[in-house]
Write a structure and sequence with these properties.
The complex is a heterodimer of chains A (462) and B (433).
Chain A: E1 24-28, E2 34-39, E3 45-52, H1 66-73, H2 83-92, E4 96-101, E5 106-113, H3 117-129, H4 135-152, H5 156-169, H6 182-187, H7 190-200, E6 207-212, H8 216-226, E7 251-256, E8 263-270, H9 279-291, H10 296-304, E9 308-315, E10 323-330, H11 335-351, H12 356-368, H13 377-389, H14 400-405, H15 409-419, E11 426-431, H16 433-436, E12 445-449, H17 456-459
Parallel strand pairs in A: 2-6, 7-11, 7-12
Antiparallel strand pairs in A: 1-2, 3-5, 3-6, 4-5, 8-10, 8-11, 9-10
Helix pairs in contact in A: 1-7, 9-15, 10-11, 11-15
Chain B: E1 4-5, E2 19-22, E3 28-33, E4 39-46, H1 60-67, H2 79-85, E5 90-95, E6 100-107, H3 111-123, H4 131-150, H5 157-165, H6 180-185, H7 188-198, E7 204-210, H8 214-225, E8 248-254, E9 260-267, H9 273-286, H10 292-300, E10 304-312, E11 318-326, H11 332-348, H12 353-370, H13 374-388, H14 393-403, H15 406-416, E12 423-429
Parallel strand pairs in B: 3-7, 8-12
Antiparallel strand pairs in B: 1-2, 2-3, 4-6, 4-7, 5-6, 9-11, 9-12, 10-11
Helix pairs in contact in B: 1-4, 3-8, 9-12, 9-15, 11-15, 12-14
Amino acid sequence: MMTEVIRTAPPPAGELRPFRFPAFVKRSLPGGLTVYAARMAGVPLFSLELSARAGAHRDPVEQARLATFTASVIDEGTRRRDSMEIAAWLERLGGYLVSAADWDTGFVVVAMLAQHLDAGLGLLAEIALTPTFPEKEIERIRQQRLAELMRRGYDPGAQADDRLAEVIYGGTPYSAPLLGRVESLRTLDRDALLAFYDRHYSLAGATVIAVGDLDPEDAVRRIEESLAPRPGQEPAPAAPAIRPAPLAGISIHIVDRPGSAQTELRLGHAGVPRTHPEWFPLNVLNMVLGGKFTSRINLNLRERHSYTYGANSRFSGRLGPGPFVVDTAVATESTGAATREVLGELRRIREEPVEIQELEETLSYMIGVYPYTLQSMGDVAKRLEILSTYGLPDDYYDTYLERLAAVTREDLLKGAREHLHPDRIAVVAVGPADELVPQFEGVGEVTVYRREPEPAAVASSD
Amino acid sequence: MTLTTSEPISRLGLQLPFERATLANGLRVVLHPDRSLPLITVNLWYHVGSKNERPGRTGFAHLFEHMLFQGSEHVPANEHFRFLQQVGGVANGSTWYDRTNYFETLPSNCLDLGLWLESDRMGFFLPALTQESLDTQRGVVMNERRQRVDNQPYGRSTERMHELLYPGDHPYHWPVIGYMEDIAAATLEEVRQFFQTYYAPNNAVLTLAGDLDPDTALKRVEAWFGEIPAGPLVPPVVAPLSPLGGEQRALLEDDVSLPRVYMGFRAPAYGERGWYAADLLTGVLTGGKSSVLYRDLVYERQIAQDVAAWVSPYEKVGTFMIVATAKPGIPIETVERAVLEHVDRAAAAPPDAADFERSRNRMLTELYSGLQKLDNRADLFSQFTTYFDDPAGAAAEADRYLEVEPRELADYASRWMTEAERVVVTVVPRKAS
């Protein structure tokens, strides 16, 4: 027999099953290494991550990007094996190895089938403790990064991101892309990489995160056995402060790309550090503004005006004041109009409190979606890394839902007024300058950038 | 309506239990319980994609997918996403050559909401259809094409590859997103007809995965979908394909700095044993730093900036692609020759034991890694049921790879990767004007 259903209104929800952030073990080992370990037994895999205080934030400005360069060479040879021996051995076991750096940390991640935990730990220790930084690999990766930069110069989205960072953060470590700059990449040498490694990959003050089909207590024991800091090793120094000069007014930066089928558009200014006390309400504010499909900016630009396939905004969580950015790609003839709409949304959310229903829907979205964002070992490892990198309390994710539920409209209004600056903002548009310039009349001062000629040394690699 | 229970199989002990049923209107239902998180995925596949279009009317299946988010009789325009997001749901749809899918992952207490939304647009879509929403979505899709294809470096190359690999009347000839002029030409009447032809329960598979009890969940499905009438039989797509009979080449100029070569071959249809052999060959060639092509071209000779290979899981015929980008100063012909040396070697002899083992183990870890997410698991069940009427295939996917012998990789390469069956698309920097 068929049950009746009522189609005229959304069906009521049943009772919500409670959800808790996965249990994890946190240990501070003698010598200063911290370990987080959590069991995620859905699939027979594990992920091991060494997270060191070695992010690009710590690069000297003239050495962009010493941090990411060092991270990409750290797994290219150890005292025991060369780069290809490591890769061949690991890949034959179905394993993955990534070493890279973002703004705040340098990291090495090994992921393998659960039965290979000891092998994975051995590899992590080998890379972390005995890298040799061979000249040959440094040169190879230097050429690869220079070529990547060259390619990036032709990618309109990347051009927009890079120009925006330059405008907002000129003169600070946040101004150059994570990949680096041609001039500094050419000069960084083995000594510089070794020095950065010695100073920043100290296991004292570093963190190891083990997640997957493993026993957390057992994992901690094995990590302690294989990854001991060298006696007397000092932790990496604290990250220096980054203080970008405030923007004056609205400035328009047009990167000329003749013949573009569309225009890449960004609006942005410096935001707040991840550790800022208002980070939490600002994230909720952003969710209303541009953080989800039904956000104000996306509905305006996409569903109301069909200027774009999608638009979003975000505050980037970093140790320093990472950017607040609105990011979209629009039909070229709509660029000026789309910019005005975005500026209008930024002003509106500072002028009047968000509607009660809008906040309720946003909070229920963020509460409901929480378990969805914690399905994989990568998801959980990333959260544990955040706890470690930003020094957040162990119960941060346990109390996350309660703290969300406590956010008010007044919190959002205050956050918007203090941390969104529609009248001190940079606008970057990558597209055909002759069509774009007239569209910005009356919005702000316009600067046009033309493509620089190719640096000769890059074009003649051998 | 009866339930049959499967025997889960996997050599590493991975359990993918499911139950299946078929409603009287032909809707096939797969239920995969996993109660580890309070989440449930509603995953609905329609067996229609760009393959069902015709020349001059391309991009229609995809534009239609956008229309299906514009409301239905009981769901007001633009409210679909709102209803889902306000409970914490994550939703989207996607269109491919052979199928279109719609999915939402929700807190498991909101199963009815997902079923309401999906059944309303399956059974009650036409009353809500308006010219205005078609015009808006046409604009959105044109911007999607600009963003994903026309304004992307190298963006037109896969489109060109398909145009050369398959003749003009073959349904894999044109791109899923369609050509701009065809997107502009779509009419409301065509939207209506497309819906009536393809969006019926007997042309769909519904998978529910996550925090559910199969019996209870099936009753809810029956309640929401049972009254939707079956549609007419869907016209079959006939796609005979004769050999290319000679290498096809194209040269594209684009706003890029580094030249790139795309090499394409046909492959067995997805699901055939030869498809898995071809997929393992992609792993031998480019899966990881120690893979044959990466090691030679990128690591040792340093003539390529990157190299990748994959074989697409299409229902009628697979597409095997190798893509390599030249290092600055290296002629693209040098890179192409180097790739071809390895293609010839792959056809001449089975791979080394180490390369074969690496590729196989890599496929398995990738597969397991993907299964961590509920939506991927639901997709896998829907895919096997849509194409093969075999949800058990989802759990047996790992075994398919384990059955293949090294010599089958050489068999594939020697039969399909010949000069006469090859398409080469080269992208070079546009000359300064």
